[in-house]
Design a protein that fits this description.
Blueprint (H helix, E strand, L loop, with lengths): L2 E3 L24 E2 L6 E4 L8 E4 L4 H16 L12 E13 L4 E12 L4 E7 L5 E7 L2 E2 L2 E4 L2 E10 L4 E10 L6 E6 L2 E6 L22 E9 L3 E3 L3 E7 L3 E8 L11 E3 L2 E10 L2 E9 L4 H8 L2 H12 L8 E6 L5 E2 L5 E3 L4 H10 L6 E3 L6 H29 L17 H4 L2 H19 L1 H14 L3 E3 L1 H12 L4 H9 L5 E11 L2 E10 L8 E9 L2 E9 L3 E8 L3 E6 L8 E2 L3 E2 L2
Parallel strand pairs: 1-31, 5-15, 21-22, 22-24, 25-26, 27-33, 27-34
Antiparallel strand pairs: 2-3, 3-4, 5-6, 6-12, 7-11, 8-9, 8-12, 10-11, 13-14, 14-19, 15-18, 16-19, 17-18, 20-21, 23-24, 27-28, 28-31, 29-30, 29-32
């Protein structure tokens, strides 16, 4: 039996920055005067307002995301065989919004490359209630047919593999409520979209398949005078002639259709700057209701520091050549529209979560909702890293302590048609964040964060699956992580540890005999288990390579032992049975 020697106390690691700061939510959230941390979360589609710690945002965000997905499910259709034969390169939206009649009208130009020719018909997604006025192919009027929500455009000839198709759809209609809104907020007109994941087709024609990201999107929105319009990418133009306000945006990076957005309102605009280097800067644009702007200023002032924090962990902000910002709208929680998050609440940790999505959800998008934890678990983990940036490991661990989930179900979603299961705050958000927390300890900080950055670089502006993430982690670490991913992503529950220990004098100190059992009935876990032995000379730490129902280890310490702690720093999602000390 090997004798394991102690290692340095991991608690000696220096915190990253100062103390954890806390702020009140604005507009929709009110601080409880009797407590410093709990705040009143607004009602969700599932229940009433409730008091919870301000960093415990997953149940709130998940409930609103589930409602959005439930609406979008009614629009979902499987990609047609013809849609699988082409890849969209560019969209050009030129749309006019008329709140008085709740209508959108205009044109969308689509350039696409044939990837599996010949292709003589181009299938597009557009809800059947929207009226098509004309379609052109290469500036020539084209015929088309419609079957339910699919528009089939006659291209006039067969295009071979590699050829570029250039078509333009002129249309008008009333978008279906839910993925698009004409609303009144504070007695003023508001126009907003939230299209995740199949709702873009409710207000503009496209190939509404999240995994087919267009290389770029050009946007021109016309709205009534006095309205300020926020959208994706870089603002190229903003004019108002007293009748109409026209805004042009350009998103030069690949973007999923559901991340293309509009938020238009008589906003109060606030400008800030993120400075990635002493000689460079990036705009941060905030679009708030006039009544809300002063209240949320303190939270929004932290965004530039959040970007610094996230960039330090994940790599540079993916859209640093464009912008980041917020646009307020009438929806609980938030939606991570690329470069411009739409927000209904302004908790510091909601803001940190949605910013995290710019990397995990926008830069790298889960290929389908079986792997939604790659979006939501990563964004939830971003909250913990923001806490660590401000308050060190204690704040990091306190944040994650609220995310513990011991119930049934895998992090991987078996049925991606089950809305509640996809946006499960327990599994997709909270346990997903614990998968990353535990993986950090398994790999070590340097390797873990190198793997995150390599994962982003490898799948930048594209899509990924759990196996893609695992492959990167294995490549960076040089380790086989099959058991880890099988147990924690595809498996269920957690380990239950029980320890039995005794000691005897030995040369230079004492030998502690420790038997570690896994008491659960569902599956065994292969994990490095930290053990801390309290001695007369201070704590002595070990890591046990545990994988069996029962294993016995001999641990040598240099002073009289008095106690043994299993996983004292909570690096494993586990439970402990009563420790047994033998005479």
């Amino acid at each position: 039996m090997p004798v394991l020697l102690s290692r340095p106390d991991p608690r000696s690691r220096r915190p990253l920055l100062g103390s954890l700061l806390m702020v009140a939510w604005a507009a929709l959230v009110f601080v409880n005067p009797a407590a410093s941390a709990p705040i009143l979360f607004p009602p969700t589609p599932e229940g009433p307002a409730e008091w919870r710690d301000e960093s415990d945002v997953a149940p709130y965000l998940a409930a609103w995301k589930a409602q959005g997905l439930l609406r979008a499910r009614a629009m979902q259709t499987a990609p047609t065989p013809l849609q699988q034969q082409y890849d969209v390169r560019w969209y050009d939206l030129d749309l006019t919004f008329t709140p008085a009649t709740s209508q959108v009208s205009g044109s969308v130009r689509i350039q696409a490359t044939v990837v599996n020719g010949p292709l003589a018909t181009l299938d597009l997604d557009l809800l059947a209630n929207m009226t098509i006025d004309q379609i052109t192919v290469g500036l020539v009027p084209a015929t088309f047919t419609r079957l339910a929500d699919v528009v089939s455009v006659n291209l006039g000839r067969a295009y071979i593999t590699g050829e570029l198709i250039d078509t333009k759809v002129f249309y008008h209609g009333t978008p279906v409520a839910g993925s698009f809104g004409f609303q009144i907020a504070n007695a003023r007109q508001l126009i907003w979209s939230l299209s995740e994941p199949y709702g873009a087709r409710s207000w503009w024609p496209c190939k509404d398949v999240p995994e087919d990201k267009a290389d770029s999107v050009s946007i021109r929105y016309t709205v009534p005078t006095g309205m300020v319009t926020a959208s994706n990418g870089t603002r190229l133009q903003a004019t108002d002639n007293g009748t109409q306000a026209v805004t042009r945006w350009s998103e030069r990076h690949p973007i999923a259709t559901y991340l293309v957005s509009i938020a238009s309102y008589p906003y109060t605009q606030t400008l800030d700057w993120y400075r990635p280097s002493p000689t460079d800067s990036m705009r941060i644009d905030f679009f708030n209701y006039p009544e809300t702007a002063p209240v949320v200023a303190a939270v929004q002032a932290k965004v530039k520091n959040m970007i610094v924090s996230h960039a330090g962990h994940f790599g540079e902000y993916p859209f640093v050549d464009e912008k980041y910002g917020h646009a307020q709208f009438q929806f609980g929680g938030g939606m991570e529209h690329q470069t411009c998050t739409s927000l209904g609440s302004f908790s510091e940790f909601v803001v940190a979560h949605e910013l995290g999505h710019q990397w995990w959800g926008d830069w790298v998008t889960c290929r389908d909702f079986h792997h939604i934890w790659l979006n939501e678990g990563f964004a939830t983990y971003s909250e913990a890293l923001w806490a660590e940036t401000n308050g060190g490991l204690a704040a990091y661990q306190a944040d994650l302590a609220q995310n513990k989930f011991y119930g049934a179900g895998s992090v991987w979603v078996p049925n991606d048609q089950d809305v509640a299961r996809v946006f499960s705050s327990d599994l997709s958000y909270d346990k997903g964040s614990w998968v990353l927390h535990m993986l950090r300890h398994v790999l070590g900080d340097a390797v873990f964060f190198a793997a995150l950055q390599q994962y982003g670089s490898t799948h930048a502006y594209s899509t990924a699956t759990t196996e893609d993430f695992r492959a990167v982690c294995e490549a960076v670490s040089g380790r086989d992580l099959a058991k880890y991913f099988q147990q924690w992503i595809y498996g269920e529950f957690y380990p239950v540890y029980r320890s039995t220990w005794s000691w005897v004098p030995a040369a230079g100190g004492y030998d502690v005999t420790l038997t570690l059992e896994q008491r659960q009935s569902w599956q065994l876990f292969t994990m490095p288990v930290d053990v801390r032995i309290a001695t007369a000379a201070g704590p002595r730490d070990f890591v046990l390579p545990d994988s069996l129902a029962s294993q016995t280890f001999t641990l040598h310490v240099d002073a009289l032992p008095s106690d043994v702690s299993i996983d004292p720093d909570n690096w494993i999602l586990r439970q402990l049975e009563l420790e047994v000390k033998q005479p």
